[in-house]
Design a protein that fits this description.
Elements: H1 4-21, H2 23-29, H3 42-58, E1 65-68, H4 75-86, E2 90-94, H5 101-110, E3 116-120, H6 127-139, E4 141-146, E5 153-158, E6 163-168, H7 176-180, E7 184-187, H8 193-206, H9 213-221, H10 227-245, H11 251-260, H12 270-282, H13 290-297, H14 301-315, E8 318-321, E9 324-327, H15 329-334, H16 339-345
Parallel strand pairs: 1-6, 1-7, 2-3, 3-6
Antiparallel strand pairs: 4-5, 8-9
Helix pairs in contact: 1-2, 5-6, 8-9, 8-10, 9-11, 10-11, 12-13
Bound molecules: adenine.
Length: about 350
């Protein structure tokens, strides 16, 4: 749990951040900076505490760490926390941002002893770049080829021992050789309601938002177990309270604001409902291919797969089958469609 002094520190950071760049920086500032401030994900935290202590005691870098799970659950936050807890600097980049082997060599050779190199969306690293990482991760040296044809030479350079922290929403798309080189792998799960409530209350306190327990609880309940969504809904509810009701955030205000944002009582938004309605109403409940669903609601397949489906799967509203996506009776019930009647009508 957060104590008052760390809240005070956070507040000071936010005030200076706000004067610089407004809400974008403030958004970053509600993130926990230390493991002790990080709410939920107990299994992951417990294991990390041990790894960090062990590495510090041995005066070694932390083992390379892969963190995976749906977007918005705190993978990037965790990478920054790991660096803070180890007392080292962090350099951040992402898979699609590194196109050439030379870019990766440049990054690796700039690292200082025990630094964290954070690569978001690590599953999107080009293969040629990934291959630079293998000896770097295993033996702390880089090896690359300069020139072409007869003049081609291989260059080897040792680098400082470092920790690679990789994050991905697609564990299955991280290549086996890369996956195997991580000493620890952690999966972040959707947060339970109690943790979400604590996260919303903590953010409200840091951002100086007047929110009652019931108001915070309603925002937490509708945030689909995802802190990033909770923090966003908290801010939008603050806007509503400021402009429409000119009050603090109590339960009624939270309900009204969230209804206006078309976030329903279990946190589904317009796109979630479009996905389910499309599968049920256009394709008789499925099975239907992801690309077909995506085309018919005008969304990217990857966005549906990475951002929307994980929560619908977790709710048990959707099944992935070899023949495509299928909506479950629970999804029909949530949308107010009678499953048996619908199925009878749609049989041919
Ligand atoms: N803000 C976003 N994620 C958080 C977490 N897990 N704990 C505390 N605050 C958060």
């Amino acid at each position: 749990m957060t104590d008052d002094s760390s809240i005070k520190n956070q507040e000071e950071r936010i005030v200076s951040a706000l004067t610089k760049e407004g809400e974008v920086i403030a958004d970053v500032s509600v993130r926990p900076r230390q493991l002790s401030e990080y709410i939920g994900q107990h299994r992951v935290k417990d294991n990390l505490v041990i790894s960090i202590q062990a590495a510090l005691q041995r005066a070694e870098p932390l083992d390379h760490t892969l963190i995976y799970g749906p977007p918005g659950l705190g993978k990037t936050t965790m990478a920054h926390i790991l660096a803070t807890e180890m007392g080292v600097s962090i350099k951040s980049t992402s898979g699609p941002a590194i196109e050439r082997a030379g870019d990766m060599v440049a990054l690796l050779t700039q690292l200082r002893k025990f630094d964290v190199l954070f690569i978001d969306e690590i599953h999107r690293l080009p293969r040629i770049v990934e291959e630079i990482l293998y000896p770097a991760m295993e033996d702390f040296f880089v090896s690359w080829v300069v020139d072409k044809g007869l003049k081609a030479r291989s260059m080897n350079l040792s680098i400082q021992p470092f920790t690679l922290v990789g994050a991905t929403t697609r564990y299955g798309m991280v290549s086996a050789p890369l996956r195997d080189r991580f000493g620890s792998v952690h999966r972040l799960d959707f947060y339970d309601e109690q943790s979400m409530h604590t996260i919303v209350s903590r953010s409200a306190k840091i951002l100086n938002i007047d929110a009652s327990e019931e108001g915070s609880a309603e925002i937490a309940r509708r945030s689909r177990g995802t802190p990033r969504i909770a923090n966003r809904l908290l801010r939008r509810t603050r806007d509503y309270a400021q402009v429409v009701t000119k009050s603090g955030i109590n339960h009624d205000v939270a309900l009204a604001a969230l209804n206006k944002l078309a976030v329903d009582n279990i946190g589904l938004d317009d796109i979630d409902r479009q996905v389910l309605n499309c599968i049920i109403l256009k394709f008789g409940g499925g099975p239907v291919g992801l690309d077909t669903v995506a085309a018919s609601i005008n969304e990217e397949s990857d966005t549906i797969e990475d951002v929307y489906e994980p929560f619908l799967l977790q709710l048990g509203f959707l099944e992935r089958t070899p023949r495509g996506r299928v909506a479950t009776p629970r999804a029909y019930e949530h949308l107010g469609i009678e499953y048996d009647k619908f199925k009878q009508k749609n049989m041919f």
